[in-house]
Each structure stands twice: as C-alpha cells, then as structure tokens.
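dumping the sequnces here before i forget
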Amino acid sequence: MQAYYCLDYLERTGRSVKKNVFHVYFGGCNFRCPYCNTPDLLDFREEYLQDVKLLKQKIKEESNFVEAVLFTGGEPTLQRLALIELARFAKKLKLKVGLDTNGSKPLTIKSLLEKKLLDFISLDIKAPLLEDDFERVTKSKTFFAPTASILHDLNNTISLLKKHKLELEIRIPIVPSLMYRKEDVLSVVKIASDVGARLVLVQFSTKNPILNKKLIGVKPPGEKFLKTLRDLIHKKYPSLDVYLLPAEN
Ligand code: SF4
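..and the predicted 3d for all of it:
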C-alpha cells in the first residue's frame, strides 16, 4: 500500500501531549486556511507518495524511544486505509496513537474509534460552526466542498467524540482579524466543554511558512490578550482545562 507522507518532516518531540511523541506528517489537505503553517503539505505531491512499509520501519525504530505516534499533516483522515493500517501497526507495537484533524472526515474517525485504534484526538475548530463565520475565517468558499457540507461533517465528528471515551483536545487558532472575537471564541469553547475536551488556544504566528502571504505583516496576538481570553473562558467554564500554545511550539 502507498500513502502520501513526508519523511523530511518526521520528528520526535513532545508538543502539547505530555508524552514523547513521534510525529508522522501526511501530505494533502482539503482545507486552505489562510494562516496554515504547513503550506508545503497541502497538495498530494508525487514526491510524497511512498510505500507505507518504509514508514512502518521508521515507526518500529522509533518505538524504542517514544510512547506515542501522532498522525498529523496536512489532513491524515483523507488517506483512510493507510491511516488505519499505520494506526493498527503502531498499536501492535504497544504505542499510543494520536490524531490531529480538521474533523472533516467523520467516517474515517468513526472507523478508527470503532476499531479502538485511537487514544487521543486533537480537533482543530477554526471558527464558529456557522456558514458565514466559517467562510470568513477559513475562506472555505475556495475549498472543494461546499461550506454547508463541511460543517455537517464537522458536526458529525463532534457527535462521535461525545460517544467515545478518549483523550480529547480542541484547538482554536487565534488569528488577528480572522478569529479573535470573544463571542466567536466562546462559541467554540462551548463545544470543547460539551465533549469534555481540554482547550488549546493556538497563537497565530508568521515565523513559519504561511499560506496566505498577506498575513505575513500581521502582528500575532499578544500574551496579555491570550491570557485575558483564557481568564474570560475560565469565568464561564471554571472546570475546563485551558492551555495557551505559543507560536514557536
Ligand atoms: S491549517 Fe490544517 S486544515 Fe488548515 S490548511 Fe493547514 S493543514 Fe489543512
């Protein structure tokens, strides 16, 4: 079996998960978020198409040093069969398995959950789940699928997460001029509270490569702004775990 993945991006770091984690970067994404920091991974490039055997070998080697594998990208759920195969392989090696996703492929996530191949999901919710807001923040009018259908799928993913017991994280990218308003953020926070996820506020950064070059001069939200936002969330949802992820992480 072949899959689109990128060996250059493979790394062994901790990130927000409190474990030593091996990251596997899948190539290809169905979104084009303007602030995306992995623009090189958005297309299904021919150079990324490789046998999954190579990746399995790499995961096996890394299993001596790490506790978990995190499938990220790009959007890993677009390559359902390869993802299931690799998650199963990692599980056989007694590794924990995590998934970073934009939530647009509930059927893939359902398969992984039903096969008990996931220990952790980090779901990016980029905007309030209303057509106008989602289009404004993500520019989803330029995506292949209509916004209404993306939102339908995202809602299905959220419903799935409510039914399964696993470690959950909801991430909100905080991006000046796009996703920063209190009411917008709180509408996503409510989802995190409903599904019992911890919440991560991700600070927008222009340090990495960025998809929309118009954002290069935009100043990232300051620490004070993010802390104020966190305090506000705590006031409304006192039992919710809220983390700030600085731009350099
Ligand atoms: S931020 Fe994530 S979902 Fe958005 S384009 Fe980049 S990889 Fe895709």
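Residues 104 and 233 are 26 Å apart (CA to CA).
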